[in-house]
Amino acid sequence: MIPSFPNFAQLDLQHRGVLHPLFQQLQDGISEFTFANIYLFRNSHHYQVSRLSENLLVIAGSDEGKAFFMLPFGFPETGLLQELFKKFSSMKCVSAAQAPILEQMGYVVTADRDNFDYLYRRQDLAELAGRKFHKKRNLIKAFVSNFSYEARPLLEEYVPDAMKILDSWRQGRDNPGDYTAAKEALEKGEVLQLCGGIYYVAGTPVAYSLGEELMGGRSFVIHFEKAVGEYKGLWQFVNQAFASILPDTYEVINREQDLGDEGLRHAKLSYQPVDFIKKFRAFG
Questions:
Q1: pLDDT the model gives residue 229
Q2: Fewest CB atoms less than 10 Å from the CB: which of 60, 90, 130, 197?
Q3: Is position 1 within any domain?
Q4: Are 231 and 214 contained in the same domain?
Q5: Are both 90 and 79 inside the same structural domain?
Q6: pLDDT recorded at residue 55
Q7: Cα(264)–Cα(200) distance, rounded to whole angstroms?
Q8: How far does CA 182 lie from the centroid of its chain?
Q9: Nearest residue to 253 via CA among 231, 233, 238
Q10: What is the domain range of residue 16?
């Protein structure tokens, strides 16, 4: 099903049986490293998979014509690792644990700040306590006071409503962004074991969140969050409302990276992250 290196297979849903259990064992908390994420963005990043040894897989892809590889499940023997660095321009999504090992081996390792994942204490986002969240609380108060709202778990029966939100979100943008991946996430959410919440104002679907657990169940990652309409405080309300219904077993919420977008970076920093999941790039 997965060919041996140097041969690769295009990433497919049938690979879930092999990859999903391996991703679930990872403790680094990197948002890219779930089967759902890799699968949903397989076309955006041209993901392929190959077997380096019986128990070790490599995932390859390309961004803007530059080929990269990722080793979420560990390093192969030295000669094979050197071959990978010769074949690809860089190693992407190098974890904080992998970075010093690669440096000791003589590879050039640089921090990939635009792809750092933002980590928040679940309790902080659920409660928004203290002066630092005063503006957020005011916006939520405005939303709750001005609109008749309802929150529901994003079950299969509500997927058509979530699709309406996504399509409306897309129509208001010049750039499609992650529309294709977000659409497929809704279509195949049950198979991919994604879960989320959907929000209504006066019976009209206006927002949803969708994600999954990471780090052995200690973290929950928000892969998609979409909202539409001019409802003051809606984004802040959804952020808090979803955090408040997540089980206490999730210590932190991972809200992924800012991709170097200054507006997005400002918004993510305004929620006072407690840490980052740092990622690095390595070059031969």
A1: 87
A2: 130
A3: no
A4: yes
A5: yes
A6: 86
A7: 24
A8: 11
A9: 238
A10: 9-115
Name the nearest CA neighbour of 241 among 189, 194, 196, 190.
196
Give the chain's residues under pLDDT 70. none
Cα torsion 41, 42, 43, 46 to 10°: value is: 120
Residue with the two structure tokens 């961004």: 63
Supply the CATH number for residue 66's domain.
3.40.630.30
Dump the DSSP string for 164-194: HHHHHHHHT-SS-TTHHHHHHHHHTTTTTT-
* Peptide linkage before 6 cis (omega within 30 of 0): yes
- Is residue 89 classed exposed, middle or buried when 0-12, 13-18 and 19+ CB atoms within 10 A define those classes? middle
CA dist., res. 135 & res. 142, Å (int): 11
Residue matched to tokens 């400002």: 266
Residue 15 class from Cβ within 10 Å (0-12 exposed, 13-18 middle, 19+ buried)? buried
Q: How far, CA to CA in Å, does 70 sit from each of 6, 32, 259?
A: 14, 10, 18
Decide if 190 is inside a domain.
yes
Local structure of residue 226 (DSSP, 8 states): E
